[in-house]
Specification:
It contains 9 helices and 8 strands. By secondary structure, it is α+β, with helices and mostly antiparallel strands.
Length: 325
Amino acid sequence: MKKMASQRRFFQQFITNLSKRRTKLALQLSASAAVASMPIMYWSHNARKERAEREHEVATRIRIPSVQTIDDLMVEKCQPGDVILFDRRSECCAAGFSAALGCLLGKTILCDEEDGTRSVERGSYEHCGVVVPGLSDAQGAQHDSSNLCLLEATSGNGIVCRPLLTRLEMSRSRSVMLLPLSCPGEHRLQDVITGLEDESELSEKTKFLKKTMNDELIKFRDKWLTDSQSQGYENQHSYLSIMGAFLYLTNLYPTFPIPVSPSAWLVVSALQECGAAMKLNEKQAQQTRVEDFTRDGRFFEKNSVRLRPGWKFLSPVAMRETSVS
């Protein structure tokens, strides 16, 4: 009996000591995690604060009638179907740590070194959006550049459609590049610089193509905005971006049904729906990177976005100058 009581006291003491050690270890791990997370919390707070200040600045900006800013002039060069590339600053991602990590991995893994095959000289473009008709249905709104919006996949709000001018003014990217899309029979080479082509000079076939493209982009816009809200895409974008980058790095992306770059996949899908891009299978569309837009599909079969015959991207137009800061 004495032996059994001694053994029982031993086990009780052992369990008590083990519990104390576990508690101590848990406290140490919690303290370490708290210390490690402090810089992240400080960065996140500053990023959100800077974003809020930028939003307030843009919202309260004084607009002088008949006086155009550089952003106003840039928006006038855009048409539905154009693609806009962003060389973002990962440290400015206000949607959280996972969004910043996805941006950083995209720039590190998915952006190629400059090898002379790109249509842009500098920049690590890992995010993109497509210009679509705006939400206004007022008479003549389809020809008003101020009604243009940018459809893009984001971490904070899911798939969103925001006024193009506001999106440019809010951007803190190092570089923003416009890729003008030209349909068969359209002559935008000089118009991108001096203004838009007079629609009265377009052939009936070209007018039909442009109207069809606009209508399909509107349908695509409305469908994806609805799906994004119903499926909670804003909670998935960052993780899809991180997983896509890692799968591309390990060369496992052909075996998984997720996009390498969610923003590039959305834009390619939009171009396919409006009849501009070749109808690839779903897997090929999911393997598209933002970098692929910087190569001419007429000359590069791989790592490029291939358009249908007669469609082409014109020379890129810088909407923001590249900065090393």
